[in-house]
Amino acid sequence: MAANNQTQRYAHIIGWGKYAPPNTLTNDELAKRVDTSDAWIRERTGIVERRIATKETTATLALYAAQDALEVADIDPKEIDLVIVATSTPEYVFPATASIVQDQLGAENAGAFDLSAACSGFVYALSVGAGMIRSGQHNTVLVIGAETFSRIVNWKDRATCVLFGDGAGALLLRGSPHYGGVLSTVLGSDGSGSELLIVPAGGSKNPASLETVMNNMHTVKMNGREVYRFATRVMVDATKQALQKANVPLEELDMLIPHQANARIIDYAAKSLHLPPEKVFQNVEHYGNTSAASIPIALVEAIEAKRVHPGDHLVMVGFGGGLSWGSCAVQWTIPTVTRPMTPQRAAQSRLRYRWSNFKSFGHRVLRRVDSGVSKVLDRLEGENNGNGA
Ligand code: COA
After folding, report:
1. Fewer Cβ in 10 A, N or C end of the chain?
2. pLDDT beyond 80 at 4
3. How far is the CA of 151 from the centre of ligand 1 (A)?
4. Does 205 lie in the same domain as 172?
5. Does residue 40 line the site of ligand 1, with CB under 6 A?
């Protein structure tokens, strides 16, 4: 549904959800695979454990997070105008993971695309989604960050495999003429640092070959020290810029939701911004770096911990491969107490998604039948034309 473009519009967050695979990998377990230790990982990163997808894929993680966001907002998937999935670990090169999620959700009236900006992806996607709403192009936008980095790390490289984990988080945005929601966004990029954090093969520069596979070029390569230096600088600057653009003084910031890559980077930013620990959310110890999923997962956990309240000013700030960075100032506007999930609501929701799956299956079958029948009809028409000549 297109929104009325005559009045100023704001993109409010009306739903939120997260999903992390239940399978946990602790530092001690990792230490049995590579030459590392729980003490080293904790001290240098703050990470204690991470979630690793087993049978899940990026699309299924995204779908579960999105379903939760829709439950919170209590809206029908048909009301969604656009689905954006921020990811660096998509289901395929194409089709977009967002299209798979759109189909499985039953978001029949939505457009869908993936957005690639590495660990800054979620903030970029939020910025695009909010912009679509502000411009009047769309009214209801689902923004998801979803990753399965466990599928692209080199499990023999101790410098990177200890850092990452899998998960997904989703926010549902809706247009409103009332002030609040996403107040400002800041996006940045410095491609001169593109080699510092990279998966070198699988794209047009180094397409998949025996050589790229043998040389482990489809996995994450990182210059940790340089990325660390970059991250500490941009987190502070981008947070200040988003607040300034939103006309919110730093003293009125209630909660910083930073990208969860490393506790030391987060602590450095908090100290530089003179923010006390209660104003900075951290959950990197339980998830590791889930890339584009880390900010929405952290926000949802902050909400669940009752650390977000109506009227609060939040900043979400991310950084990562590109090099890229982004921040976003938000005024929270709605109560965070969600309706209890009654057995009736749960059953209704299960039925809705089963029905979506069934309809999707039906469409696939129908497409095949249609293609087969069309071929037969074309052949018959050709024969008839031949006979008539
Ligand atoms: N276990 C034990 N030792 C390890 C190790 C591990 N998992 N990984 C690296 N080391 C070793 C190195 O080999 C090196 O040994 P050496 O001195 O004998 O050569 C030593 O630890 C120090 O390595 P260094 O890379 O200098 O460590 P560091 O203090 O910079 O910490 C990171 C490494 C990766 C934790 C840190 O650089 C970092 O967090 N960078 C940012 C990464 C990031 O956030 N990436 C994602 C961005 S979205």
Report:
1. C
2. no
3. 21
4. yes
5. yes
